[in-house]
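Exam revision sheet. Question 4 asks you to relate a sequence to its structure. Input first:
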Amino acid sequence: MEPIRPFRWNIARGDRLGSLLDGHEHEPEYLPHLAECAAKVLARSSDGDLYFVGRSADSVFDLLSGVLAETPYASRLHQLPLSLYGSDGEDLTATERAQLRTNLTSSGLSPNDLAGRRRPVVFADLVLHGSTFTNLHHHLRDWIDDERAAWNVIRTKIRYVGITVREKTSPNTWRWQQHEDWVTELPGKAVCNVSVDLWLWRYLGNHQPKTAHSFRRTRWADPEVTVPRHDEEARRGLAQAVALYQHGRTREVREEIHEVLTGEPTFREPWLRGIARALRGR
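Answer key, structure tokens:
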């Protein structure tokens, strides 16, 4: 069984885009809000490797890719094309399960890979009720058990960062992770959130054009997804990705990211101060 991965242009590598962006220039008015979100995701990544699950947080990945370009931290950013939302991630067939594991292995996320990691793997995604993280965790847990891998070791290497809708803080505020039993399997603070305004969450999750279709179970083994899209939505999504990457490389955005990092509680930790110094030192 061969791994399948949806095609996405590698902007950081400088893929030739030809005329794909013609007539699709993009100036993101939401940039300051996205920069704040991206900085907080970075600050809450536990000195780990960030894996952005699915498509919803593509813009966070693209902006941070520009911010961290030409620093020692650029290799910590990864995309994990995968849709496990709701019932779509449940009751997999044996063939679907095998393909999922093959695809995860190609991303360096097999049980053996997880057990041998030096830094944690940090899954980041937009979260409503947490079903994507729940399904992903259950599939990983079953796989680890099937392989008889060292769960006591692996549990220290897994983190989750949810990008949620900002709400008023009170003891009665509903928080998705408080309603998921699997969270208790992980060390304290292994699950955390970054909140954004509702309009930004809806735009990223529901309305923003994307360069690829959702990678649902019906497409996990479909080689057609490896072919680049050239339709209107894909071109608009690509234009946004390029614009955000380029903005991330500017001193203005790096300074915005730096300012947010210094206000985070984790800034006292050497690893985050190292990232902040790298941003200033480019």
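Marking note for examiners. The first helix runs from residue 31 to 43.
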